[in-house]
Structure formats: C-alpha cells, structure tokens
Specification:
homotrimer; disordered N terminus; mainly alpha; Methane Monooxygenase Hydroxylase, Chain G, domain 1; 0% strand
Amino acid sequence: MGFSLLPKEYEFFDMFDKLTAYSISASKYLQEIVGRGCVQDDDVIKIKEIEVAADKVTYEIFDKLNKTFITPLDREDIHSLAHELDSVIDMILKLTNLMKIYSINGIDEKFVEVLKLIDNAIFSISKAVKGLRNNKSYQTVKEHYIEVDRLESLGDKLRNEAIAELFSGKYEATYIMKWKDIFQTAEKLLDHCDDVAKVIETIIVKQA
Amino acid sequence: MGFSLLPKEYEFFDMFDKLTAYSISASKYLQEIVGRGCVQDDDVIKIKEIEVAADKVTYEIFDKLNKTFITPLDREDIHSLAHELDSVIDMILKLTNLMKIYSINGIDEKFVEVLKLIDNAIFSISKAVKGLRNNKSYQTVKEHYIEVDRLESLGDKLRNEAIAELFSGKYEATYIMKWKDIFQTAEKLLDHCDDVAKVIETIIVKQA
Amino acid sequence: MGFSLLPKEYEFFDMFDKLTAYSISASKYLQEIVGRGCVQDDDVIKIKEIEVAADKVTYEIFDKLNKTFITPLDREDIHSLAHELDSVIDMILKLTNLMKIYSINGIDEKFVEVLKLIDNAIFSISKAVKGLRNNKSYQTVKEHYIEVDRLESLGDKLRNEAIAELFSGKYEATYIMKWKDIFQTAEKLLDHCDDVAKVIETIIVKQA
C-alpha cells in the first residue's frame, strides 16, 4: 500500500475538477442562450446532458467516499462539496428550463449582467477548488471564495433592482410573474455558488 | 432479553406501514376532492386529522429510536424514512389547503393526471417499505423505488407543460397565479415521494 | 483549569441571549416600520446592521463550539439553536427588504396582526432561551415553546385568510403578487420561530 495510497486519494480532486468543468460548460452555454435571446428545445437537452454527466461524477465521489478509508479532506466536507457543486449545475438546468417554459424572447440587460456574475462566480469556484490540492495555494483559494461572496451580494442587489423595476407599473402581470421567477431562480443559483464557497471556507479554516 | 429483542425491533416496520397507510388514505381522499372539482371545509379538516395521526406515529418512531439500542436499519435511515414519509402527508395537506384558499372550482384534466401519478408513487412507496422487512424481497423493493423516480420525472414533464399552457396567453393573471402555485406544490409533493424512494435506495444499497 | 471551566461554558448562554436581544430589536423595528406604513432606505440599512451583528455572534458561537471540549448542551443542539436564531433575524431582514422592493404604502390590518404574533413569538423564544441555563426553570421554558407553536398555528390561519381575501376578486394582480409574497414571507419567519422552539424542545426532552 504505502506509496499508492496518496495518489489514489488525490483522485477526489480530479473528480472535483471534473464537476467544476461541467459547471463552467453549463454556464457558458446558458450565457450563449441568453445572449441569443431565445431558448430552443435543443438547448434544454444539451444542458440536461451536462447535468446528467455531473450527476454521474457526483455519485462516483459518494461511492469512492464510502470505499476510502483515509480521505484527503474531512469526509463530510468532501460530501458537501460534491453535493453543492452538483446543485449549482442543477440550478443552471432549472433556469434554462424556466426560460423555455416561459418562452422568453429578447434580451434583458439586467439578466445578462446577472449571468455574467454567475459565470464569474463559477470561474472563481473552479480556481478555489483547484487550489485545495495544495496548502501553499490556500491564500489564493481564500481570495476566490471571498470573491464568490462579493458576487453573490452584487447579485442580491441586482435582483432587488430588477424586481422593483418589474413592479414599477410599466409591465403586465404575466410578464412580471415570468421575470420575477427568472430573477429569483438566478439569485438562487448564485446562492448555491456561495454555498460552495462556504464549504471551501470551512475546509481552509480547518487546515489553518 | 435475547429472543424478545428481535420482534420488538420489527415494530419499526409496523410503524412505517402505518405511515404509508396514512399517506394512501390522504392521497385517495385528495383524488376524491379533485375528481369532485371543489374543496369543502370538511375536506381540509379530514386530511388534517390524517396528518395529525401520521405526526403521532412519526414521533413514536423517533421516541422508539431514542430508546432502542439495536435497530434493524441504520438509525439515521430510520429517522430519514420516518421524516420523509411524514413530509409526503404534510404536502398532501398543504395542497388540499391551497385548493381551499384559492376556491378551486371545476376539474382540470392535467391536474387529475398529476394526482394519479402521486397516487401511484405513494402506492409504490408503500410496497417498497413493506419489502424492507426481508432482504429476499429487495429486488421488488428496487423495482418500486425506480418506479417512483420514473413517476417523478413524468410529473416534472406534466408540470412544465401545465405551466407553459398557463402562460400561453389564454388565461387571466390571477388564474395563472393560483394554478401555477397548485401545480408547483403538486410537483413538490412528488419530489418528496422521490426523497422517500432515495432513502429506501440508500438502505438497500447498504445491505447489498 | 478546573474551576474556570464551567463559567466559560456558560458563555454560550450569554451569547444566545445576545442573539435573542438582536431578534427583539429587529422585530420592534419592523413593527415600527409597518405601523408607520412605509419603508425608508434607512430602515433596511438599520435592520441590516442588526443582522450583521447577529451574524457575528453566531460565528462566535460556532467558533467557541469548535474550541470547547465540554459543552453545557449537546454540540449539535448548540449549533442548531445558534443557526435557527440567526435565521429568524435573516428573515426579518428579508421581509423588510421585500416591503422596500414592493414600495409598500399604507397599513394593512391583517399584516399588523401577523407582526404582533411574530413579536410575541420572539419574546417567548427569548424567555425560553434564558430558561435553558437552569433546569429548575424547564417548566417555564416548556410553556414558552408551546406558546410559540400556538402562535405559529395562528399565523398559518391568518395567512390563509389573508391570501383567500387577496384572491376574492377585489384586487389587482400586481397588488396580489406583492402581498401574497409578503404574507408568505411573514409566515416563513414564524416557521423559523417555531424551528427555534423545536430545538429548545429537543434540548429539554433530552434533559428530562
């Protein structure tokens, strides 16, 4: 055993990187849809494919966790990190699906802004996750999870402005309903990004 | 002790069967209401009675769990299973209550369909729970929890269609609000059924 | 160590009292806003300040929990109690923010009633939390958490009536949307109060 133990444990980090790579793909794809201003049937299917692939990796992590005696991070942190990363991708699918159900047409500037925040948050998450392998990079990891928290606060502010604007009297009730739901779902997505950041913070604090 | 230990442990299964019997009663009653096309004051009271009875059994399970040294399944699985079964009945009460608050009148074909899915899911859950007593029936248990998952996916699809239809331009804003809420709550009920199925899956996987 | 151990442990109770004091301040402030009938920019900022201060205490509790070997209550109960008390204050901020976003103007009698329930529930929680220090006061603690449960049921009833009234045909769709959201958020706040009560019940039951 001896020497072979460590490399095997490190497979957890490779699997986490796979999950963040899926979240980046899904986010890029969603940005493309929103930039184009309409959702096609194919779009939901493609993001669903990413979500299914991410689900598979998440289960592999849980399975490996059950079979591994010594883990490179606390068991519950590995579990939470996998679970929360998976939730981010689930929410991207949910948001895409909502845009499809509501037949969203046209580009909303504020929504494009929110999606940019989401994409930046997911990028920071991927960097933070990569940094978990090596405690020499913990300072950078910290900067990344603080950045996610900052982006989430910005997202809150944007959502508040967007919803206040929806209720300003200029829009029809059904239009308000659709966009309120979409902005709230986007904000939940950012909340999930922040949940990932919080798990990473917990990991770093423990190791300090 | 010795011989008396085992039969006592098996009381957990009897209590789970009680919970699934309550969920079946509540689901049948809800189907009757929806088939009739209007909710009466009495209806909410009757489903509330079932919910209170189920709550009582759930607490008995938690209490027995605290007092039992050797349990027939992992403690946390017994806890989750009781909790999730109880949540299914809570959601049936919530859905009935919503129909009452919104003074729902008339029969919606898609909603009848969703309730049929819910009733089937609850039936499969009851069969799966019954099968937990004996590892010879695990193959059947597995078929049942897979079926719940299938029904939940169907429910997702139906809800998406129903909400897209609500926003098609044919309906008034307040009508949309009510039915959107009702379809989403029905879908959450199905999600809770799926949560039960997932706990059962966890139990089976561990024993395999 | 010896003698100094116990007093230090009891700092947990002081910190819980701080949290309940913050929840009382926030609730009083919210009542003032609602009584006045409009939210000003300053109001959200002031409640945000209370929320940030409460967050700080919550983290201090978590931190102390990590560093304390012998705790005066079960570790997971201390964690849950801090977390749930913090959630109550978060929800007060959320509710205030919602009133701001929706530019709520004027006084709604039913909403004033719901806020009175919330304020009473928070008062009972503060008394129950104070009573946790001494098992001689457990009977009083019990009376308080039962009272919170009673207030939560009353809140459910009020919300149902308020929402049924909103959908009675007298109101515009956007008005309904805003107030539905506000009454549901207020009810969630009461649910969180009840969650605190349930944690306290768990603690008392264990000690009995």
